[in-house]
Write a structure and sequence with these properties.
With 283 residues, this protein is α+β, with helices and mostly antiparallel strands. It has 2 domains: 3-228, Cupin (Jelly Rolls); 232-278. The protein has 9 helices and 12 strands. It has helices at 7-13, 32-41, 70-75, 93-104, 107-114, 166-173, 184-187, 229-246, 258-278, and strands spanning 3-5, 19-24, 47-51, 82-86, 118-127, 132-136, 141-148, 150-155, 191-195, 199-203, 209-214, 219-227. The strands form 2 sheets. Strands 1-2-10-7-12-5-4-3 form an 8-stranded antiparallel β-sheet. The chain has a 4-stranded antiparallel β-sheet with strand order 6-11-8-9, with no helix packed on it. The protein is globular and about 50 Å long. The model has no long low-confidence stretch (mean pLDDT 91).
C-alpha cells in the first residue's frame, strides 16, 4: 500500500497552500488489466473520456466525444491520444480500502486543523503521452499520486481573483463547469511541478491548475479527495451569493465579513426549512 514520506511537509502547508509530497508503495489494483475490469464494472456515468490534444483553455461545449470504450482506451492508451477518468472507484470495497489507507496517512493532521474528513472519494486518471487536462479548479481537498509515467502539474493560487473571479466561483458552485478561460499572461503566474512515479501533490480547494503528460509513456494517477466543514461552508455561501447576485445584489466574498456570512446562512437555511414545511420553493 502507500506510505507518505516527509509528513511534516503536508502539515506545514495544509489547508491553504499546495505541497509537493512523496508516497512509497504500490498495489496491483492500479495496474492496467485491473483497471479495465474496474472500468467495465463502473456505471457509464462514472467513466469520463476526453481527447488528449485539448488546448489549455477550452470551453466544455467544445470538447468532442470519445470514440472508444473504456476498456479499449485503457488498453490502447499509449496511442489513443486521450485521457480518461474513472470516478468514485471507492464504490468497490478493494479500492475504498486503498483510499482509506492513503487518507489515514494524513488524517490526524486534517482532523486537527479542519475537522472530520467529509465525502471522501477516489478517482483514477489514465492519459496518453502529451495529453492535456485544461485549466480548471475543483472544490475538494485533493492528494494526487503519480503511479506511472511523468506529468507536469501547473498550480495557481486559489486567492487570485483575476484567475477565478467571485462570479466564477459562485457560478461553479451553482452548477457551472469547472473549466476556466485563461490567457498566456495568466498562465505564467503558476508553478510547474514535474511528477514522477511516487511523487504526489496536495491541491487546496479552488486552486486553479492544468496538467500535461510528459515524455513518450502514458500516465496513470490516483486522486484522493475530501471536503471539510470550512470548504463546504464556503461552497454554501457561494451558492447563496449566486442567488443574491441573480436578484441584483453585490454580496461580499465568503470570509471577508463573518457576521454577514452567518446571517446569510441563517436566512437561507430558514427559507429552505420553511419551503420544505409548506411544499414551496424558496424565493
Amino acid at each position: 500500500m502507500f506510505d507518505l514520506i516527509a509528513k511534516d511537509t503536508f502539515e506545514k502547508s495544509y489547508p491553504d497552500a499546495h505541497a509537493t509530497l512523496s508516497f512509497a508503495g504500490s498495489t496491483p489494483l492500479l495496474t492496467r488489466p485491473r483497471l479495465v475490469s474496474l472500468a467495465n464494472a463502473l456505471p457509464a456515468d462514472l467513466v469520463e473520456f476526453n481527447p488528449g490534444d485539448l488546448p489549455i483553455s477550452v470551453s466544455p461545449d467544445n470538447v468532442p466525444e470519445a470514440g472508444m470504450s473504456a476498456a479499449e482506451t485503457i488498453e490502447k492508451i499509449g496511442s489513443a491520444n486521450s485521457w480518461m477518468v474513472l470516478r468514485n472507484i471507492e464504490r468497490d470495497p478493494a479500492y475504498a480500502d486503498v483510499m482509506n489507507k492513503v487518507l489515514d496517512t494524513v488524517r490526524d493532521i486534517v482532523t486537527g486543523q479542519t475537522g472530520e474528513m467529509l465525502r471522501s472519494e477516489a478517482f483514477v486518471f489514465i492519459s496518453s503521452p502529451g495529453a492535456v487536462t485544461p485549466f480548471h479548479f475543483d472544490e475538494e481537498h485533493n492528494i494526487l499520486i503519480q503511479i506511472e509515467g511523468r506529468k507536469e502539474f501547473s498550480i495557481y493560487s486559489q486567492h487570485d481573483r483575476d484567475l477565478a473571479s467571485q462570479e466564477d466561483l459562485e457560478a461553479f458552485h451553482s452548477g457551472a463547469h469547472r473549466n476556466l478561460p485563461v490567457t498566456d499572461e495568466k498562465l505564467a503566474r503558476g508553478k510547474a511541478i514535474t511528477m514522477e512515479p511516487g511523487d504526489a501533490i496536495y491541491v487546496p480547494p479552488l486552486a486553479p491548475h492544468w496538467v500535461r503528460v510528459l515524455g513518450d509513456e502514458p500516465s496513470l494517477s490516483l486522486s484522493i479527495t475530501w471536503r471539510s466543514n470550512a470548504s463546504q461552508r464556503q461552497c454554501y455561501l457561494h451558492q447563496i451569493n449566486h442567488e443574491m447576485r441573480q436578484k441584483g445584489a453585490t454580496p461580499s466574498f465568503p470570509g471577508s465579513n463573518p457576521v454577514a456570512d452567518q446571517l446569510k446562512i441563517w436566512r437561507a437555511s430558514g427559507k429552505r426549512r420553511l419551503g420544505k414545511a409548506f411544499g414551496m420553493k424558496p424565493a
